[in-house]
Each structure stands twice: as structure tokens, then as C-alpha cells.
Design goal:
rod-shaped, single chain
């Protein structure tokens, strides 16, 4: 019976798992950055609306 050479199989497994983990990390970072960007935009929008409401209140008095 002939023995097969499996020296490269461990390297291929490491490369495949590394690529899979890297892909997952990139997707999670993208979602995190998008969420942070949306939070900053919402905070700015809320601040602007509060400033406009304060001005309108002062004008109506």
C-alpha cells in the first residue's frame, strides 16, 4: 500500500481558516463602523432639531 504525502494539507487548512476568520472580522468591523457613523449622524440631527425648537420657542414668546 502506498503512503500519501499530506504535508501541505495542514497549510491549506490554516490558510482556509485564516481567510474565513478574516472575512468574518471584516464584516463585523463594517457593521460596527456603519453603526457608529449612524449614531454620530443621529446625534447631530437631534442636536440640530433641539436648537431649531429652542429658536422657535424664543420667537413664539
Amino acid at each position: 500500500m502506498k503512503k500519501l504525502n499530506f504535508k501541505g494539507s495542514a497549510l491549506v487548512q490554516v490558510l482556509v481558516l485564516g481567510a474565513l476568520i478574516a472575512t468574518i472580522v471584516v464584516v463585523l468591523l463594517k457593521f460596527s463602523i456603519t453603526r457608529t457613523s449612524n449614531m454620530v449622524q443621529t446625534k447631530s440631527l437631534v442636536g440640530s432639531k433641539m436648537a431649531v425648537q429652542g429658536c422657535m420657542t424664543m420667537l413664539n414668546e
